[in-house]
Amino acid sequence: MSESSNTNLEQAKQEGKYIRTIRSFVKREGRLTKGQAAAIEKCWPTMGLEHKNGMLDLSQVFGNNNDVVLEIGFGMGKSLVEMAKNAPHLNFIGIEVHRPGVGACLMDADEAGVTNLRVFEHDAVEVLADCLSDESLTTLQLFFPDPWHKKRHHKRRIVQTEFAEKLRSKLKIGGVFHMATDWENYAEHMLEVMQAAPGYKNQSETNDYVPRPDLRPLTKFEQRGHRLGHGVWDLMFERTK
């Protein structure tokens, strides 16, 4: 990198602009529907969280000290909204980079009258680093992330040793990192990474996968997969130290 490029990068950081280097996703921006756009305009002032505002005081954000569940990459947000509606004693934070998904999630949350949910439209790695204090989360959820199924793309998978270590610091002792995937090869990769990651214990009685817990809603996508004989693998690892 040239001296000029370095200067521009430092200046951008000082101005609060974030320069993304490594991404765990590909931005596939679709068009917002009118309903999604209206939901963002209506709900963002009360439900939206901004990365640029820095470290969160979660008790202030939610107005209580309830346990916090964070989901990385919630897609269109249907299962996240359902979880928040079913567990009013918990607080939920969702992170999603795709604006139509954010709009759909806010629209569903508004229609359901959910008040214990907040949303970031930003890169999860940056949110974890800059907005969430250590030992602030009870549960971290990562459901059906991009499998990057071609072998040459496996290095792009979000579940890697470094990522597991970064997540661990954000979990309370006894907190759980819950993953789910419908790609068996990715499930094996997740298991291998997490078995080797320090400070975690597998909650599986067979030391591999767990049955889908009731707290994770069964999606239409999964129901269709089950009918076609497709598998889904859940992994739950508890922070021990």
TrEMBL record:
Chain's gene name: trmB
Pfam families the record matches? Methyltransf_4
Membrane spanning residue stretches: none
Which parts of the sequence bind S-adenosyl-L-methionine? E71, E96, D123, D146
Keyword Chaperone among record annotations = no
What's its top-level EC category? transferase
Task: Write down the superkingdom of origin.
Answer: Bacteria
- Protein's recorded name: tRNA (guanine-N(7)-)-methyltransferase
According to the UniProt entry, its GO molecular function terms are: tRNA (guanine(46)-N7)-methyltransferase activity
Q: Per the UniProt record, which EC number(s) apply here?
A: 2.1.1.33
Q: Which organism is it from?
A: Pseudoalteromonas marina
Annotated substrate binding lies at K150, D182, T219, K220, F221, E222
Q: Write the record's keywords in alphabetical order, separated by commas.
A: Methyltransferase, S-adenosyl-L-methionine, Transferase, tRNA processing
